[in-house]
Specification:
- Helices cover about 45% and strands about 10% of the residues.
- It is built from eleven helices and four strands.
- A hairpin with a 5-residue loop joins strand 2 and strand 3 (about 140-150).
- Helix 1 packs antiparallel against helix 2.
Amino acid sequence: MAYELAKETLPLYSHPKSPHRFTQPQLAACLLMMYYLDLSYRDMEEWLLATDKVCEVLELGRVPDYSTLAYANQRLLKIGQLNRMNRALLDKLELEEEAVASDTTGYPTTQASAYYRSRSGLTMREYRKGAYAVGIQSLLILAWRQGIGPGHDSVFLGGLRRDARRYTRPRHWIMLGDAGFDGKDVRPTDLIPPIRRGGNIVDPERKARADLVDTARLDGLFGQRWKSETVMSVIKRKFGDAIRARRRNLQQREPIIKGLVYNIHV
C-alpha cells in the first residue's frame, strides 16, 4: 500500500540524469516500512536482504544500502509529500465522519528510557509534539500538526479543523477535544471544555459551551474523545514512542510520518 501511494504522488526520478538505480516510490516505500518496523537504516538494509518477496513486490533489482536510505529520508519524506500521500489514501475511502476527536502527545528526542533519565538526573525540557484529529468511526487520522512542547494545544485546533473538514459531513459534524484546546479558535458548538481560571465561568458563550459538554458527557458522545488516545497509544506501542532523528528538520517530520504509517497499518 505504501508503494502504491508513493507511485501516485511521487515522480519516478528526481532528475532525468539521475543514476536511476532506484525509483523515488521504491525508496519512499522502504522508508515507510522502516518506520513501521521501527528499524535503523542498517537494520532495514539487512531486513530487505532477507526478504526476497518484499523486494519482488517493490520491484527492487537490488537492495538500497543504509546510506542511500539515509539520503532518501532527507529528500523524500517532507511534510508536504506526507500530506499528499495521506490525502490520496483517505480520498479513496470516501469518509464522512460525524465527529472528530483531537488530542496531542509528546515524543522525547532521546531514546534513553524513563528509568535511565530519572536515575541519571536528566530532565526533558523540550520534546516534539504531535497533534492528531481522528475520525471516531474510521479511527483514521484525518489531520495532523507538529510542534515543540511543552506548550498550549490550542494553536493546533484551527489547522486540524481545516484539514479534517474534508472528510466530515457538510455542516453537521462535531469537534471533540480536551480543555487544552480551549482558545480563540474554539467555536460554540465544539465539545471542548472551557478552562476555569480561578473561579466560575462568567462569559455567557463559555458557560453555554460548558453546559453543552456536560450534556455530551451524559449522552456518551464526549466519551468518544478517548478514541484519539487509543490511536496515539497504538502509534507509540507499535512504531516507537521516541524521535530517532537528531537534525531538527528531520525531527519535525517524525510525528507526521508515524501518523501516515498508522493510517497505512489500519
